[in-house]
Amino acid sequence: MHYETATSRKLDLEHRDSLALLARLQRGVLEVPAGGTPGEAFAALARQVARSVDGEVGRHFRFEEEQLFPRLAAGGERDLVDLLLEEHKTIRTTAADLLPLLLAASTGRLEAAQFAVLKPLALEFVERLEAHIQKEDAALLPAIDLLLDQAADREIALACIEP
User: Fold this and answer.
1) In the CATH hierarchy, which fold is given to the domain comprising 6-161?
2) Cβ–Cβ contacts within 10 Å for residue 135, how many?
């Protein structure tokens, strides 16, 4: 889809990167045989996903909540904002449960019992975040394009690229 504002294009790019990594995570956990332990390839993937969780769930969600949601609510999109905030809360909870296991997996020394806990959490995280991203692509990004004028877009886009 083509988005009009720099802000929506930047968020779309972040969403695409996240979806690609989520697909790799899903494949990675499904490739480990039942009762097995993940190898070094999964350890490297777990390190990357752990870093990304902080980026997507940490910085990206904060950016939306601080920079976009107040403007959208004021512009008449309160229901959308409430829905996305509820999803953020749920995804953060899942991420908080998953992150310690990803960090353990990143060492390459994850035992089969730990992986048995990680696998369903990882798949739940993938499912929730993919659905959330699809919802944002379908509703949030078009709303941003309609709501933001050029000056607001420039201000918000600059805030989006700051760490």
Assistant:
1) Four Helix Bundle (Hemerythrin (Met), subunit A) (1.20.120)
2) 14
The predicted structure's pLDDT at residue 94: 96
**Encoding tokens for residue 34?**
């039942």
Buried b (16+ CB within 10 A) or exposed e, 80-101: bbeebeebbeebeebbeebbeb
Rounded Cα–Cα distance for residues 78 and 138 (Å): 16
Report the amino acid identity of residue 123: L
The encoded tokens of residue 61 equal 């969600």
CA distance 135 to 143: 12
Tell me how many degrees the CA angle 33-36-42 measures, rounded to the nearest 5. Answer: 80
CA distance linking residue 143 with residue 154, whole number of Å: 16
Rounded Cα–Cα distance for residues 148 and 163 (Å):
22
Residue 1 carries which DSSP code? -
pLDDT at 161: 59
Q: Show me where the domains of the chain are located.
A: 6-161
Q: Are 67 and 159 in contact (CB under 8 A)?
A: yes
Average pLDDT for the chain? 92
Phi, psi dihedral angles at 138 (to 5 degrees)? -80, -30
Q: What is the pTM of this model?
A: 0.92
